[in-house]
Design a protein that fits this description.
Elements lengths: L1 H22 L26 H13 L23 H13 L5 H10 L6 H13 L1
Length: 133
Amino acid sequence: MINYTLISLIALLALGILAFVFGKNRRADGTEEPIVVGEGDCATCTPETPKCEQLCAMEAAVKPVEYFDDEELDRFKNRAANSYSDDEIEQFAYVLHTMQPDEVAAWSRSLTLRGIELPNELRDEVILLMQKQ
């Protein structure tokens, strides 16, 4: 008697698994539900998704450079991140603090594409703001 109960439970579990596997893409009318791949925004890339970062880097390389009312920072092209004066760091900080938080990642990419290194003193803050998004 116990064997029949155990076999029935195993069979019922197996049928449930099969129904789930084969029926998860079906609508109530029997047609298949299309599988939609979410389109992410490059601003939402995280360290856990390195492919996202690679795709965004390639995408950014072919797009025109985006400016954030920061054209004056172009004069810092090819400068080392540790070579800025306090006044120059303040110029970067002003731009950073006047933009929307969801623009920080795009701004960082813009600086990179323009050959401008972010001052070392602001890197942690920029990374923190990008992680919050």
